[in-house]
């Protein structure tokens, strides 16, 4: 999750020689390295998770819904970026130097009754981006251990990871930006400190536990077809480790620990009252929530064409949305049988709009 669009920096060699020239770097610990690895922290499916446990120990409200957080902390507009934010104060991380308080990323969540997938804030103590990063890094290292600090393309960053959870510290030093980059970002004009501030991103990896009914539906899982067109989690551990996307949590559940016959599959519950889809996340969708199925075909163009099958549903806000079921690359008709079969067994209409070009 980038606060600003990441720029593409040119390849550069001798990064260790240039660091002193670029930043006046002294011999500090931890040192700045080239292409650092994330610090992998202990975690286990259904058990400990170092990042989530740390957040719990500090009382960080990572399981609260957006609306609960707004009711508790209020809703304001960011003075530089203009987007809505909910400043969590005082800072549960006890991180000083915050230019702007840590806030859930409300713009990435369609429904206020959902739990935010990410939180972010900005740390600034001086006009030196590395000093700001190191300042934030000292506190996070106290909480999680010292993750490596290093150059990744046009950024200097440090990342802690535990399964689906991640904490990131990132700066965009002006001297690492590509030639010709003028840096005229409107928010930076409103607050010039943002140009060198350290962005902190907290992604706890929240997914809600299954209800008793959902667990019963999954126990009787009846497979119909493999999920196509996307990367799949091939093991339960990989599914537990897969971070939820920033598109919302509609029908996403925590996986079980004792069943894996649904991995990479499209199917339904024994009573056909739920559609079950598992690709990178486990979706259990009550059939009564589904308005229609939608099969969009793509003619070859710049891309090779294919098809996408989704389930349309209408949540409480009245705005119809879709959940992906399966995809196909290169074959417009590959999902026809699955779409027709699901339409029959779920007793929902199948929408097939005019084919589009795969541009």
Throw out a few tags for this protein.
about 350 residues, 8-stranded mixed β-sheet, alpha+beta, about 25% strand
Topology:
Layout lengths: L14 H9 L8 E3 L4 E2 L9 H8 L8 H8 L2 E2 L6 E2 L12 E7 L14 E5 L5 H16 L4 E4 L2 E8 L2 E7 L14 H5 L7 E6 L8 H8 L2 E5 L9 H6 L10 E2 L11 E4 L5 E5 L3 E5 L3 E10 L6 E8 L7 E9 L6 H11 L3 E2 L4 E2 L2
Parallel strand pairs: 1-7, 2-8, 16-19, 16-20
Antiparallel strand pairs: 3-4, 5-6, 6-10, 7-8, 8-9, 9-10, 11-13, 12-15, 13-14, 14-15, 16-17, 17-18
Describe the structure.
The protein has helices at 15-23, 50-57, 66-73, 129-144, 186-190, 212-219, 236-241, 336-346; strands spanning 32-34, 39-40, 76-77, 84-85, 98-104, 119-123, 149-152, 155-162, 165-171, 198-203, 222-226, 252-253, 265-268, 274-278, 282-286, 290-299, 306-313, 321-329, 350-351, 356-357. By secondary structure, the protein is α+β, with helices and mostly antiparallel strands. Strands 1, 2, 5, 6, 7, 8, 9 and 10 form an 8-stranded mixed sheet that branches. It has a 5-stranded antiparallel sheet with strand order 11-13-14-15-12, covered by helices on one side. Strands 16, 17, 18, 19 and 20 form a 5-stranded mixed sheet that branches. β14 and β15 (282-286) form a beta hairpin. The longest helix is centred in the middle third of the chain and has 16 residues, at 129-144. The two termini are 25 Å apart.
């Amino acid at each position: 999750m980038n606060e600003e669009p990441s720029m593409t920096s040119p390849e550069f060699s001798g990064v260790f020689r240039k660091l002193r020239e670029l930043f006046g770097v002294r011999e500090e610990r931890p040192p700045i390295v080239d292409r650092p690895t994330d610090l992998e922290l202990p975690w286990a499916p259904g058990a400990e998770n170092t990042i989530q446990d740390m957040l719990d120990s500090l009382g960080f409200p990572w399981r609260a819904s957006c609306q609960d957080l707004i009711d508790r902390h209020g809703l304001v507009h960011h003075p530089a970026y203009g987007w809505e934010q909910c400043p969590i104060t005082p800072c549960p991380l006890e991180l000083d130097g915050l230019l702007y308080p840590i806030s859930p990323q409300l713009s990435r969540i369609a429904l206020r009754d959902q739990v935010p997938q990410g939180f972010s804030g900005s740390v600034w103590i001086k006009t030196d981006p590395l000093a700001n990063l190191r300042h934030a890094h000292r506190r996070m290292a106290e909480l999680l251990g010292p993750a490596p600090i290093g150059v990744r393309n046009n950024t200097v960053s440090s990342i802690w990871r535990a399964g689906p959870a991640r904490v990131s510290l990132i700066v965009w030093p002006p001297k690492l930006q590509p030639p010709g980059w003028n840096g005229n970002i409107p928010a930076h004009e409103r607050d010039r400190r943002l140009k060198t501030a350290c962005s902190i991103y907290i992604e706890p990896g929240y997914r809600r536990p299954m209800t008793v009914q959902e667990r019963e539906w999954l126990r009787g899982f009846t497979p119909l077809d493999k999920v196509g067109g996307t990367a799949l989690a091939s093991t339960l551990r990989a599914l537990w480790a897969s971070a939820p996307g920033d598109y919302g949590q509609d029908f996403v559940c925590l996986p079980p620990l004792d069943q894996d016959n649904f991995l990479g599959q499209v199917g339904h519950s024994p009573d056909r009252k739920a559609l079950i889809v598992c690709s990178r996340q486990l979706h259990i969708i009550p059939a009564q929530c589904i308005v229609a199925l939608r099969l969009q075909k793509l003619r070859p163009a710049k891309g090779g064409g294919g098809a996408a099958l989704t389930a349309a549903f209408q949540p409480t806000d009245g705005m119809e949305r879709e959940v992906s079921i399966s995809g196909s690359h290169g074959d417009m008709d590959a999902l026809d049988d699955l779409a027709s079969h699901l339409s029959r067994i779920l007793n929902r209409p199948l929408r097939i709009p005019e084919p589009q070009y795969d541009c």
